[in-house]
Specification:
With about 350 residues, the chain is of the alpha+beta class. The protein has eleven helices and nine strands. The chain starts with 6 loop residues before the first helix and ends in a 12-residue tail after the last helix.
Length: about 350
């Protein structure tokens, strides 16, 4: 069997990479920090023109009808660029959750999925056990958990309280709202299944971005190591620096296989997707955190300063380390898959 990506998938990745390189620069990210929303409507329009928000929207609602495996390479590129817009969460988390509600919520799906595909609406998804919702302030519809229930709540029906993040690009909000029968779109066993699948997709989305961030931090450190000279030579020529970067490069390559396998498992509904997603999440997280650590060492004291671009990607990696399950929770899921035994209560409350 051939598990390599198709020529079309690789070409799409190249095109998205070129677009993000030109449009999502470190200077533009810093400029967005000075705005009230931290987001750019024009950039979202450009992403829509590329067809990205519509990728996982079913074709019956005006989308492209693609799956997680089709988008996984693009999610990496979003991480590499530290894209501020909630594209990855929309495509890999919000849209599949909305699409999985079934025919019972056909009117809701028809309204919102069509608008999302057209770039006229955005989603935000709450994480079970986490009171903070990313990008709730720009979402037209929020999909929120209440026990086993899934609630679809218009933004006008909630009150938002901003919370600071270690990453200035992450816009986090506590959402104050009242669950009602009118907002409940799934409950009971169906609700539990939907949230379990959503947690997996959220962890996959996070893993892909972390892998992209790891690669960007390596590239920044390598570029700096050739510019910085000591004893008349670029510091990148020193063996100690080479080892720092080589160790991260190995971690990145080892993380690719688990990530793509997890995307395949979700796209094809495989029964072992829980363990495979957790494996990918752990591998990509370890690569990103090691990249941040070693890139800082390569930059020296400069790595900590506000002016250096490295901090944009380093802080994003630190922030994503704690969303859609922390490392302890994902390790527990792998242990359960390998050796049996239940995950301890409360282990996932850092979603």
């Amino acid at each position: 069997m051939d598990f390599t990506f198709s020529d079309d998938q690789l070409l799409f990745q190249d095109n998205v990479r070129a677009f993000l390189t030109n449009e999502v620069t470190p200077e533009r990210i810093r400029d967005l920090w000075q705005t009230e929303s931290g987001r750019c409507d024009y950039l979202w329009t450009q992403l829509t023109e590329l067809g990205l928000p519509a990728m996982t929207v079913p074709d019956g609602f005006g989308g492209l009808g693609m799956n997680e495996l089709d988008f996984i390479l693009l999610a990496q590129e979003c991480g590499y660029a530290a894209l501020t817009e909630p594209l990855v969460d929309t495509v890999l988390v919000g849209v599949p959750l909305l699409a999985a509600l079934g025919n019972e919520q056909l009117d809701l799906q028809s309204e919102w999925l069509t608008r999302i595909a057209e770039g006229k609406a955005r989603l935000a998804v709450g994480q079970p056990g986490n009171p903070l919702v990313a990008d709730a302030h720009v979402a037209d519809l929020l999909l929120l958990p209440h026990g086993d229930e899934v609630h679809a709540v218009p933004r006008a029906a909630v009150a938002l309280v901003r919370n600071a993040s270690v990453d200035p690009s992450r816009q986090l909000f506590r959402v104050d709202w009242t669950p009602t029968a009118a907002t409940c779109v799934a409950a009971g066993e169906k609700g539990r299944t939907l949230w379990a699948d959503t947690v997996n997709r959220g962890a996959l989305a996070t893993a892909a971005q972390l892998l992209g961030l790891a690669k960007r931090m390596v590239d920044l450190a390598v570029d700096y190591s050739f510019e910085r000279k000591q004893f008349g030579k670029p510091v990148g020529s020193f063996q100690a620096i080479k080892h720092l970067m080589a160790n991260v490069a190995v971690q990145i390559e080892f993380a690719k296989g688990p990530l793509y396998r997890a995307a395949y498992a979700i796209a094809n509904g495989l029964s072992e997707q829980d363990a495979q997603v957790s494996h990918a999440r752990l591998a990509c997280t370890e690569a990103a955190l090691l990249a941040a650590k070693n890139a800082i060492q390569t930059h020296g004291a400069m790595g900590y300063t506000w002016e250096v671009d490295l901090q944009l990607f380093m802080k994003r990696a630190w922030a994503l380390d704690k969303v859609w399950g922390d490392r302890g929770w994902h390790k527990a899921r792998i242990r359960e898959a390998l050796f049996g035994g239940a995950i301890l209560p409360g282990a996932g409350n850092t979603f």
